[in-house]
Design goal:
Blueprint (H helix, E strand, L loop, with lengths): L11 E5 L9 H16 L4 H14 L19 E7 L4 E7 L5 H8 L6 E3 H10 L10 H16 L5 H7 L6 E6 L5 E7 L20 E4 L2 E7 L1 H6 L2 H12 L1 H9 L8 E7 L3 E5 L5 E3 L7 H4 L2
Parallel strand pairs: 3-4
Antiparallel strand pairs: 1-5, 1-11, 2-3, 2-6, 5-6, 7-8, 8-9, 9-10
Helix pairs in contact: 1-2, 2-3, 8-9
The structure holds aspartic acid.
Length: 298
């Protein structure tokens, strides 16, 4: 009897360190990407790969996710993270505190009947499930909060949105992956933005806004959460993957935003990868070329 040999595709991982992140953190994007590739080589799925990659980025104190997360105006740290895969399985945490790797808690939420846990209850869920209490605060985050407060004091409290848009970098992290069986996954993790009230939830843990994955590919984005959410940016890029290809889908998505709004997008589809950002963005991929719709068609 003839055995069917499963068709395999080139495994791909893409990582980013946030819209506005500079070359100085490119090594983090690379280390994260290679950790994702190592997970795939060990036989892991696309989901395992984005988790492995995102944990590396969360543990790097220079990024605004996990250790090194930005502080709220009251000095607290609340983080958002999410994962999603091609089977539309998803897990997310919003405004979680006192844990080291929010993305791993989001993965744990995926195993429950729910899609998202928020605030104090997300933190309790994490601690009850074996994630030990952990303080992600860094001196850098403390200094940044002082600067934010000085800004507010000197400029008589600028309008919230305008203050956000003035920020140079955002530094959230994210990863997308495709494994050899053409399964996709996306992850995102953030400490949020500056000028941020306690309790604020951005786009990063919201399916369709901060990330999206499905049978056609995976997308994760970075920038001003409220602006991204309004346009459901990740789903809008995902919906174009098949028609125009991964790179053009990212370009069209970026074109929805004025230059003044920092925005970054990474994607992987059946044709390959896409990346677009209107600021510097440290990112990494093992893929040698950008995806185009032509490449996706047999
Ligand atoms: N999108 C994130 C948020 O608004 C910030 C970022 O991408 O850096 O929380």
């Amino acid at each position: 009897m003839k055995r069917r040999v499963p068709r395999t595709v080139e495994p791909i991982v893409v990582t980013h360190c946030g819209a506005g992140s500079t070359r100085a953190v490119r090594d983090a994007a690379g280390r994260a990407g290679r950790a994702g590739m190592a997970a795939l080589r060990r036989g892991g799925s696309a989901l395992d790969a984005v988790l492995a990659a995102t944990v590396v980025l969360e543990d790097d104190p220079r990024t605004n996710a996990g250790t090194g997360s930005r502080m709220r105006l009251d000095g607290s740290i609340q983080m958002d993270a999410a994962v999603m895969d091609s089977r539309l399985r998803a897990g997310a945490v919003a405004a979680i505190s006192n844990v080291r790797n929010p993305v791993l808690v989001a993965r744990k939420v995926m195993e429950t009947p729910h899609m998202m846990l928020a605030g104090e209850w997300a933190t309790r869920f994490a601690h009850a499930n074996g994630f030990p209490p952990y303080d992600p605060a860094t001196d850098h985050a403390r200094a940044r909060l002082e600067r934010t407060k000085d800004d507010l004091a000197r400029k008589e409290v600028p309008p919230w949105a305008r203050a956000w848009l003035r920020e140079r970098g955002t530094d959230t992290v994210g990863a997308v992956a495709r494994d050899g069986k053409c399964r996709f996954a996306a992850a995102s993790s953030t400490g949020g933005v500056s000028y941020m009230l306690p309790g604020r939830v951005g786009d990063s843990p919201i399916m369709g806004a901060g990330l999206y994955a499905g049978p056609e590919g995976a997308v994760t984005v970075t920038g001003v959460g409220e602006e991204i959410w309004r346009l459901l940016l990740s789903k809008s890029v995902y919906d174009r993957l098949t028609d125009v290809g991964a790179q053009a889908a990212c370009d069209v998505g970026l074109g929805l935003f004025p230059e003044s709004v920092p925005t970054g997008i990474i994607a992987v589809g059946k044709d390959g990868v896409g990346e677009a950002c209107n600021r510097d963005m440290a990112w990494w991929t093992n893929a040698r070329s950008r995806g185009s719709a032509k490449a996706a068609r047999p």
